[in-house]
């Protein structure tokens, strides 16, 4: 049986021993993994931990405000927020290939982050890498940027307190640390964020559409008291014909994906009640101009992956 109290005690002690009086830095995304890693490191190092929230422009609705409220205002963490939206959008102009998108986002993310690390004189890098991250990365399925994208010249030494944990254990630790439910029960969200939920070229317009659609999906799934592994929206390529009001329209298609899983290695499309799906469809097409069609993805993993890119 996993003992969260003991784990926390030991992790805090180990971080303190490894980092000593130096400064450590962490990229805090607000996901349960980086939040737990940051909270552990904050307990161990206090102000010697600098948490950096990079807003790359592909975050979920309200995410930045929520992170600031929880980690800076409530927990008193030394949090720096970097607005790098333009830098990311610019670098992604004209790029359509999923792996290239991921690599570009990973590269710029590290650039932005290293600039912050240099500013604060950090020697250590705390990461919320959990067991499935490095298992999948070494299997070469997808380049999860928190592992594979690290440049060889990285001068920061890694601190990975969650390396041996699985997601359910990380959530137990989050609850034990007293983090709010919005963090401890937060669904996984890819590092490149909504950029990999817009198929093909990423534009601010498309990201805004998928952000709104995603918020509706998350809201309705929560309201229906369903507890999937992940529930989200993706914006498909191209437009299809529709009718809005009395006129023929030509709009985007949103795919809704709700999956159950234990570790993301495999997943099952959830049997979401029809009325919940219809509510999601109605809200998306009513509230988001530009979307004329909503599809529900019934594919398991394998053969599909959870994310679209
Ligand atoms: P796939 O799409 O490979 O996703 O079935 C498995 C799990 O990993 C998440 N995911 C990512 N997480 N960086 C991350 O930190 C990424 O680039 C990334 N890609 C996928 C995905 O949301 C799912 O939970």
Strand tally, please? 9
SSE sequence, one letter per element: HEHEHEHHEHEHHHEEEHE
Q: What is the 3D form?
A: globular
Structural class: alpha/beta
Indicate the low-confidence ranges by residue numbers.
140-150
With strands numbered from the N-terminus, the spatial order across the biggest sheet is 3-2-1-4-5
Calculate the mean pLDDT score and round it.
92
Helix content: 40-55%
Question: How many angstroms does the end-to-end distance come to?
Answer: 36 Å
> Biggest sheet: strands, sense, closure?
5 strands, parallel
Distinct small-molecule ligands in the complex: xanthosine-5'-monophosphate
Q: Total helix count? A: 10
Strand content: 15-25%
Radius of gyration: 20 Å
């Amino acid at each position: 049986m996993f003992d969260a109290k003991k784990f926390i005690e030991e992790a805090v002690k180990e971080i303190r021993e490894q980092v000593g009086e130096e400064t450590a830095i962490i990229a805090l995304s607000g996901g349960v993994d980086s939040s737990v890693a940051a909270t552990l490191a904050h307990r161990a190092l206090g102000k010697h931990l600098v948490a950096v929230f990079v807003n790359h422009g592909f975050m979920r609705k309200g995410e930045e405000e929520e992170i600031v409220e929880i980690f800076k205002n409530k927990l008193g963490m030394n949090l720096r927020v970097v607005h790098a939206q333009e830098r990311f959008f610019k670098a992604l102009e004209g790029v359509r290939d999923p792996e290239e998108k991921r690599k570009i986002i990973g590269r710029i993310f590290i650039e932005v982050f290293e600039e912050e690390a240099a500013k604060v004189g950090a020697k250590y890098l705390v990461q919320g890498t959990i067991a499935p991250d490095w298992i999948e990365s070494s299997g070469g399925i997808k380049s999860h940027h928190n592992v594979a994208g690290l440049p060889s010249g990285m001068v920061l030494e890694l601190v990975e307190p969650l390396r041996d944990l699985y997601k359910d254990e990380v959530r137990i630790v989050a609850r034990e640390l007293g983090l709010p439910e919005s963090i401890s029960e937060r669904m996984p969200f890819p590092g490149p964020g909504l950029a990999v939920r817009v198929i093909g070229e990423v534009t601010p317009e498309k990201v805004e559409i998928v952000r709104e659609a995603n918020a509706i999906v998350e809201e309705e799934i929560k309201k229906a008291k369903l507890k999937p592994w992940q529930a989200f929206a993706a914006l498909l390529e191209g437009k299809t014909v529709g009718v809005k009001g009395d006129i023929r329209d030509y709009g985007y298609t949103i795919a809704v994906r709700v999956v159950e899983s234990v570790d993301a290695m495999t997943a099952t499309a959830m049997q979401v009640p029809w009325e919940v799906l219809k509510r999601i469809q109605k809200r998306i097409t009513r509230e988001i101009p530009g979307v004329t069609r909503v599809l529900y993805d019934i594919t398991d993993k394998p053969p599909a992956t959870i994310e679209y890119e």
